[in-house]
Amino acid sequence: MRILRSADYRRMKWKNGGGETVEIAVFPAHATLDNFAWRISMATVASDGSFSIFADCDRTLSLLSGNGLTLAYDGGMGMHLTTASAPYAFPADAATTATLTDGRVTDLNVMSRRTLMSHSVARMGVDGETSLHADKGSVLFCQNGRMAVTRGGTVASLAAQDSLIIGDNAAAGLTLSGKASFFLIRFNEIPQ
């Protein structure tokens, strides 16, 4: 298990220059915006506008804070997202605009290059103790609260906005304890 602390995340401009993103993790390590296999980031959206385009990528967006936003892509119907909404998947290479409901929002953005990887995102919670199965390469992102993650006698403590990567070649049975809201992000390699 590898812990990523929120204070160590990389801050950078959006690809379209319209704001700032906080890069939580990227694979392979040190990949650029043009060649990652997968990427997890957070961004604060302070005004209506267009999303950056990422060729050959799929995106899942989840709201972490704020009063909501409506997404519309390729002229399609709008999808309204709130902090209670399920993570929303859509193509990252489709022209997408966001309209804020009432003030700024912060989102969690997961992307994968569809020729190399696929991904899924689930919003979850722990209050007490629970068990969880995580595949190799899975990422836990602690949205708020605090939780301990135990695997085979090793314990990792996560605070708000910290992450944990299951980085070896084996799936993992995890025990989670504490009180927290978190996301389980799974990546799967596309056979070549």
From TrEMBL:
Alphabetized InterPro entries for the sequence: RmlC-like_jellyroll, RmlC_Cupin_sf, Uncharacterised_HutD/Ves
One Pfam family in the UniProt entry: HutD
Superkingdom assignment: Bacteria
CDD domains per the UniProt record, alphabetical: cupin_HutD_N
TM ranges: none
PANTHER family, sorted: PROTEIN VES (PTHR37943)
Protein name in UniProt: HutD family protein
Organism: Gluconacetobacter azotocaptans
